[in-house]
Structures are given as structure tokens and as C-alpha cells.
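Exercise 7. Predict the structure of DUF971 domain-containing protein from Undibacterium curvum.
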Amino acid sequence: MSTAKPQPTSLNARTQSRVLEISFDDGRSFVLPFELMRVYSPSAEVRGHGVGQETLQTGKREVSLVGIEPVGNYAVRPLFSDEHSSGIFTWEYLYWLGENQSQLWQDYLQKLQAAGHPGETGRDAPMISAGRSCGSAH
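Solution. The predicted structure, encoded as C-alpha cells:
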């Protein structure tokens, strides 16, 4: 069994359908909605600095990408339309998102409902500032 991590062979941001298409050298391909990427951003703004410090992301249904920047040979940094740009998405993380997106999506919808957003209404609800910042100006 190979321990080599899959490397991307193509990466296409589809702004009209708001998805990132990514193919890997192991033959796997994924279509990742920008919304899923945004709510599971690996940034401290979303994840916090430890377990239990996560910030539930709301109102991201219509989020888009305004740019995407390479980070070395190992990652990209998406620039989202809501001005979020601090998440660095490694190839390994994008692969994991692709493999697990069905379960991640269900987990996200359950968290929104648990936070008092019936159905999928949390996908459109405005973000409520938690008053915390990680050095950001917002």
C-alpha cells in the first residue's frame, strides 16, 4: 500500500454553480460546494483554537469564490465573497472534504437545527458575531 498522498491533477472553480471541481492522481474526483468549503474552513476564525471553540457558520448558502491563491505546492487559499480568506486548504484536507462531504453536510444541517434554525434556514441566517476575533478587524 502506498503512503503517497494524492496530488491534484486539476482544479476548477465554477462560479455559476458555486463548486470547486478537483481531480487527484489516484483517479478520484470531487465536486465541493463553496458553501461546504466555507463552513468547514480550516481557519482559526471558524475552528477556534481548540475543541469546543468552533464558530457555527450561518448565512453561507450564496457564498462564492472571488479568487483562489496557491500556497506552495501543498495547498490553496480560497478568497470567499464574504471576505473570509484565512483558511488554507491542503490537498489532503480537500480530499478529506470530498470523501466525507455527505456526512459533513448532515452534521452541519444538524448543528444549524440544534442552534434554533429550523429546516435549512440557518443557511440563509446572518452570522451573529461572537465578539471574538483572532486578530481580525471584523
